[in-house]
Amino acid sequence: xxxxxxxxxxxxxxxxxxxxxxxxxxCLSEREADGCHRLAEFxxxxxxxxxxxxxxxxxxxxxxxxxxxxxSYAAKRVHGKGVDKNPEDGVKYLEKSCEYGFSKxxxxxxxxxxxxxxxxxxxxxxxxxxxxxxxxxRAEPCSTIGSGYLLGKYGLEKNIKVALNFLEKSCDLxxxxxxxxxxxxxxxxxxxxxxxxxxxxYRERAEKIDKFKRGDNSVPSISLGxxx
Length: 228
Fold this sequence. Notes:
Layout: H1 9-29, H2 33-46, H3 50-64, H4 67-79, H5 87-99, H6 103-115, H7 123-135, H8 139-151, H9 160-172, H10 176-188, H11 196-214
């Protein structure tokens, strides 16, 4: 990129043409999955050709089993960008992205099955995919499962010990929701024995996560109910 003056439209055009050639070679000649994904992104984001991007994402998913391309194709299928809108088929491609190792696909597939807004609600499948996402280090799926065990939701039997394990994991991974739920639980002492030290620990952790996400070190303290 240093060899191009990107303030010059002609050089920008040459640069983009060379990028397209490079990615096309990686994908079509070398059959490199990451090259195909970059080519699909090039068409989708630079050339604004959603149909071509979707075609390459799908092919890269189906043939080269590249999870991130499955995820990107799923999004196009759900929203009808470059392909016919079909949310249920989109969720199937989220499942494929999960199968091929893309953890965000596991998370989104799980949420879709719990919500029942894109596919028929299926708690068993939803929890299965959220567990896979949690196992791969995604914080919010751990928190959602923890809430399920805490309240006996999503077809899960109420189990406080298991709930706390999932919520603690979610908090350690950076889930603001998980940390807040733990702090409230230990402060109120209704679900678990009251423990002010743990309530404070998880409150402080929640505040740090909140400030980090906001990028503002002057964010006021989070309100966690009676007594602050």
